[in-house]
Amino acid sequence: MTDHHPRTKAVHAGTRRSQYGELSEAIFLTQGFAYSTAEDAEARFIKAGEDEFIYARYGNPTVRMFEERISAIEGAEDGFATASGMAAVNGALVSILKAGDHVVASRALFGSCLYILEEILPRYGVEVTLVDGTDLAAWRAAIRPDTSVVFFETISNPTLEVINVKAVCDLAHAVDAIVVADNVFATPVYSKAIEQGVDVVIYSATKHIDGQGRVLGGVILGTKDFIRKTVEPYLKHTGGAMSPFTAWTLLKGLETLDLRVRAQTQTAMKLAKALEGHEKLAKVIYPALESHPQHKVCMDQMGAGGTILAIDVSGGRDASFKMLNALEIFSISNNLGDAKSIATPPAFTTHQRLPQDQKDVLGITDGLIRLSIGLEDADDLLADLSGALNAI
Question: What is the pLDDT of residue 49?
């Protein structure tokens, strides 16, 4: 469906119909597949065709529909669906890297991503250098002729730093490094990561793609050669496969993804503007605000600020907890990208394991609250936030 717009691809791309002609995608809840003859079994293990499957850990018709649909939306040649977003991050990095390789990554990352980079990869002989992702000079100094992989979140979690994707990709490609980007906050709706030079795009499909708090899932997107020759051998043997039911749920999520994300982004912008300058807040962080340090980069790359904003409540932990406990519509949770609005205190949840000096460098203060904006009425959400701030 190369000639169609993303919203059309989100509804139709990758559809496989059985002999019954079902309109809604079928869920193929099966681990294995039968062969007509022993010769057919032998031939499939030698080389499976486009619509031939061996075992659900290797691939499944429902999962394949999801892989093809999200690939079409993103503009990638192929994809491999995983059991979670972190399975995608781990699968992409570990399938590429070996002992002696060098990785340069942005320092501002989700806590579990930092765990992989700081704890797991060095354990197996991979050297990791962390840099300020917004500082091109830092990237330039850290990337070496032997650098294998460059990794970053296009918008960082939770402080919403925006990476200059094209500039970092140019630096990485100058030494033939592979660029791997976690693109969750940008979403497939606003993403132009592949156009801007990213080689491998990762999504936690748990977030906006499902968007309704039902399932865990992830996906790795890239060239067909990379997905089938590098990612697939690693994941099919280590077991990070997506379940068919999850894939079906995510297919349904993709149908409304564009509508949901654009509505959530519109509300996020309204809330950010209304809250900026509030007397109880030290800061409002939202990439589409002109006050954001990477405002121009964000608008050039995405054209919008996305569904997430952050506020820094004056008064630290006590004040921010009073605000959180006074919320009536927002739920206190560590998820994001949901139809329900969610408030998270990262210093005490998603990033609590980080030493204080690292939190200080990243700007994760005791008063920081990450707000994932849902589909509720914008005025109701603003009243909820205003009332909670007044309760401090």
Answer: 85
Residue 337's CATH number: 3.90.1150.10
> Is the backbone peptide bond immediately before 158 cis, with ω within 30 degrees of 0?
yes
Spatial distance between the Cα atoms of 266 and 304, rounded to a whole number of angstroms: 9
270: in domain? yes
Are residues 137 and 14 part of one domain?
A: yes
What tokens does 134 get? 């917004």
SS (H, E, C) 83-114: CCHHHHHHHHHHHHCCCCCEEEEECCCCHHHH
Rounded CA separation 242/232 (Å): 13
What region does 335 belong to: left with phi over 0, alpha with psi -120 to 50, or beta?
A: beta
1 falls within a domain: no
C-alpha to C-alpha distance for 106 and 300, rounded to whole angstroms: 20
Among 101, 146, 163, 109, CA closest to 128: 101
Average pLDDT, the chain: 96
Q: What is the pLDDT of residue 356?
A: 93
Same domain, 203 and 82: yes
Query: How long is the chain?
Result: 392
Residues of the chain with pLDDT under 50: none
Which of these, 275, 237, 226, lies nearest to 58 by C-alpha position?
Answer: 237
Q: Which pLDDT does position 2 carry in this prediction? A: 76
